[in-house]
Automatic annotation (TrEMBL):
Transmembrane segments: none
Residues holding [4Fe-4S] cluster: 3, 6, 15, 21
UniProt-annotated location(s): Cytoplasm
Any GO BP annotation: response to hydrogen peroxide
Organism this protein belongs to: Desulfotruncus arcticus DSM 17038
Protein name according to UniProt: Hydroxylamine reductase
InterPro entries, A to Z: HCP/CODH, Hydroxylam_reduct, Prismane-like_a/b-sand, Prismane-like_sf, Prismane_a-bundle
Superkingdom of the source species: Bacteria
Cited Pfam families: Prismane
Entry GO terms, CC: cytoplasm
Cofactor(s) recorded in Swiss-Prot or TrEMBL: hybrid [4Fe-2O-2S] cluster; [4Fe-4S] cluster
EC number(s) given by UniProt: 1.7.99.1
Family listed: Belongs to the HCP family.
UniProt cofactor note: Binds 1 hybrid [4Fe-2O-2S] cluster. Binds 1 [4Fe-4S] cluster.
Length: 427
């Protein structure tokens, strides 16, 4: 354990074996897990709130759960487990709320093919997650003849009708968050960071970078009240983008669309044309062991579908996996919060086959890096989903005892090798 909540910590620094208050390492671990999960819930609830949507139960739980983690309040190990699972429930409510807010404001996402090339002219690159920031930027930039490119988790924005209608939303550039410094340095236009997943900038592009909303970086101009005039002016001032040919990416397989073709999916499963469905997604990171996800998708048989979401998809979303009876084998559902879409599809399929979600020919292989991925894992555990595989390593904040409880009750597994895991999942 590592607890430094109070003045009486061991040695005046931190308690590492047992708390001076009597708290053991497992309770400390669950408190850490709860706080980390709350960060994910807060992210989704914040975005929904910007669009005018709130859930009083989510708000009340945030207060209750934060109070629970304070020193000398709650030492019950079993109650903390229940709180973590309740955190998963609240995260589900927050994701549902955000999905409703986005759909009502920007329309229901539909499959979209997105160019990765450049159109000539001044341009802004926008990264992060906030669709409202993108909408306001598009409106203001359109009037000035400035093109807008998405980066990272902004790729799914191309699937929303109210965003796609802007002619200056011209393409996508770059990959996941950890490649920002290289990719931003090579992008000649202005750069706008929204919400999380922004890195400290290199000096080579710091003067071309801006932040807005929650995101802030030292030495970088911060935009207030979504007035992006300075961002647009910088795009017009610096070197315009040259014309450049690129490839394409496909996104927008929101649950509303997938459920509209559910009959085709169900028929293909019943006919044996679709043997198995894999959900491979989550957070991206720099560890070399994350090549596991690329190799796994490469090896998934041609009679299987791959659902993906979050920035983990950049390990393989450039691949052409073909289709099964017109159904694309690779279905990008969107941002990490669109795990809600994957859940809705799984529940619908279980209903169609009159079985539980755990009885479906469905396997979940998740990559995790930060708080939102943890809160989504808690949501899946709250729903009783079993035999999830996570990687590339176990969360460090879980003690062996706590991890053991999750593994025993839910069959949570750590990834091994693509070959072995694929063999086990298809068995």
């Amino acid at each position: 354990m590592f607890c430094y909540q109070c003045e009486q910590t061991a040695g005046g620094t931190c308690c590492t074996k047992v708390g001076v208050c009597g708290k053991n390492e497992d309770v400390a671990s669950l408190q850490d897990a709860l706080i980390i999960g709350l960060k994910g819930v807060a992210a989704y609830a914040f975005h929904a709130g910007e669009l005018g949507y709130r859930d009083e139960k989510v708000d009340a739980f945030m207060h209750d759960a934060l109070f629970t983690t304070l020193t000398n309040v709650n030492f019950d190990l079993e109650n903390h487990v229940a709180k973590v699972l309740q955190c998963g429930e609240m995260n589900l409510r927050a994701m549902e709320l955000l999905d409703k807010a986005n759909v009502e404001r920007f329309g229901s996402p539909e499959p979209a093919t997105v160019s990765t090339g450049f159109k000539p002219g001044p341009a802004v690159l926008i990264t992060g997650h906030d669709l409202l920031d993108l909408y306001e930027l598009l409106q203001q930039a359109e009037a000035q003849g400035v093109n807008v490119y998405t980066h990272g988790e902004m790729l799914p924005a191309h699937a929303y009708p109210e965003l796609r209608k802007f002619k200056n939303l011209v393409g996508h550039y770059g990959t996941a968050w950890q490649n920002q410094k290289k990719e931003f340095e090579e992008f000649p236009g202005a750069i706008l960071g929204t919400t999380n997943c922004v890195l400290l900038p290199k000096e080579s592009y710091k003067d071309r970078m801006f932040t807005c909303g929650i995101a802030r970086l030292p030495g970088v101009t911060h935009v207030e009240n979504r007035d992006f005039s300075a961002v647009i002016a910088k795009a017009q001032e610096v070197q315009p983008l040259p014309e450049k040919q690129g490839g394409t990416l496909t996104t927008g397989f929101h649950h509303n669309f997938v459920l509209s073709i559910a009959d085709k999916v169900i028929a293909a499963v019943k006919a044996g044309k679709i043997r198995h469905i894999f959900l491979v997604g989550g957070c991206e990171g720099a560890k070399s062991s994350r090549s596991y996800y690329t190799e796994l998708v490469k090896q998934i048989p041609d009679d299987c579908l791959v659902i993906t979401l979050g920035c983990g998809k950049y390990r393989f979303n450039y691949m052409d996996l073909g289709d099964i009876d017109g159904i694309p084998r690779l279905l990008d559902m969107g941002q990490c919060n669109n795990a809600y879409s994957a859940i809705q599809v799984a529940v619908a399929l279980a209903g169609a086959f009159n079985c539980g979600v755990n009885d479906l020919p469905l396997s979940l292989v998740l990559s995790w890096f930060e708080q939102k991925a943890v809160s989504i894992l808690f949501t899946l555990l709250h729903l009783g989903v079993k035999n999830i595989r996570i990687g590339p390593s176990a969360p460090a904040f879980l003690t062996p005892n706590v991890l053991g409880v999750i593994q025993q009750n839910y069959g949570l597994k750590l990834i091994t090798t693509p070959e072995q895991d694929l063999k086990d999942m298809l068995a």
